[in-house]
Known about the structure:
The chain is an alpha/beta fold. It folds into two domains: 3-262, Acetylglutamate kinase-like (Carbamate kinase), CATH 3.40.1160; 271-363, Archaeosine Trna-guanine Transglycosylase, Chain: A, domain 4 (Roll), CATH 2.30.130. The chain is 39% helix and 20% strand. The chain contains 14 helices and 13 strands. It has helices at residues 10-13, 22-37, 49-57, 66-89, 102-106, 108-123, 146-156, 193-198, 210-223, 238-244, 261-269, 280-287, 330-336, 341-347, and strands spanning 3-8, 41-46, 94-100, 126-132, 161-165, 187-188, 228-232, 248-252, 274-278, 298-303, 310-314, 320-326, 356-363. The strands form two sheets. The chain has an eight-stranded mixed beta sheet with strand order 3-4-2-1-5-7-8-6, with helices on both faces. Helix 2 packs across helix 10. The protein is elongated. The structure holds adenosine-5'-diphosphate and the ligand N[C@@H](CCC(=O)OP(=O)(O)O)C(=O)O. It is an enzyme of class 2 (transferase). It is found in: Cytoplasm.
Amino acid sequence: MQRIVIKIGSSSLTSDEGGLNRNKVHFFANEIASLAATGSQVLLVTSGAVAAGFREIGYTTRPKLLHEKQAAAAVGQALLMRSYQEAFGSHGLGAAQILLTRADFSQRQRIQNAQMTIEELLKQQIIPIINENDTVSVDELKFGDNDTLSALVANLVKASGLIIITDTDGLYTADPRSNPEAKRIERVTQIDDEILAGAGGSGSSVGTGGMRSKVEAARIAMRGGVPAFVGRVLEPDDLLHAAQGHGRGTYFDTQLHSLSTKKQWLGFHSTPRGKVVVDDGAEHALLSGGKSLLPVGVKDVEGDFHAGDVIEVHNLSGQLVGRGVVNYSASQIRDVAGLNTDEVQKQIEVPRIEVIHRDEWISLK
Length: 365
Ligand SMILES: Nc1ncnc2c1ncn2[C@@H]1O[C@H](COP(=O)(O)OP(=O)(O)O)[C@@H](O)[C@H]1O
Ligand SMILES: N[C@@H](CCC(=O)OP(=O)(O)O)C(=O)O
């Protein structure tokens, strides 16, 4: 059975002047009901609370200050849910509200509870409708846009696909609103610097992340073994077509398998306490050889971390290679960086010779 996470952005549900477009909510509910009727389990990540609520409060444009956005979201989230429940109800489908924060993902018990709730809702054929819990999110820790949230949810529930619905028919080589020469990209197998450089900010005054955050989200999903689609759902059956592989947008393929909860935590929710820089050989061993990181490949150490902390690994060009749980303190690595295993063992005593063991490692390049 397919399990699909669908993300709908503010610009698809509301207008620049704010307020929820109920016709659009009904349209998406129809599309999702058709997809559910094919036997797919569907989870919905929806934005639109701030955009739906700000006019009700009396703000003339989308607020910029955090507490104003939070107030607008508190009003708008209720309107959003009422509209979805009514729309899904007309298809005989239940809908449930789940509000999450970034901090929830980093605490194992909280996210396990969310996961169990979602599983039970799906078992009962109720559509989980997920948004960021804007009331309690602090600025530095906000997902901000829901693209990232949708990718993290897709990884969490080990979805078979992530569909990010937006107001353009996919990723272009540059922002199509400002660059008429921009070409649409049908399929992406690897997100490189060129693709990221062309993906710009939001084109509307209600959307937040723009194409850049969608590409970043696709990267998180791909890393978690979930293929993604970014594109338009405007006409009836567009969503079905997107799920079937011939939608109006860009597909992001992945060959990777789904990630264990431990590796998801390590890669996307842990807080790195420092970093080491490694040479080309060590980078290759970590990325392609499925090997552990040994002291001999370490060129530099930054920060003051302890054994058991999570650290980042960078290459000689300064790019992030991945993250892992370190078996040495920062000062121990400084003492043995560049030494081979025999020399290390003569110099210090550590329970494990690997700086980072492959079981405690995730590649992020
Ligand atoms: N390379 C690109 N390809 C396509 N769209 C792009 C690109 N760069 C920037 N954009 C802009 O990103 C917008 C979609 O993001 P956003 O406004 O945040 O929508 P949403 O509310 O659906 O999240 C598009 O309307 C487009 O103007
Ligand atoms: N949690 C916020 C999401 C913010 C937002 O606008 O996101 P998006 O439209 O996905 O770029 C809301 O519901 O308004």
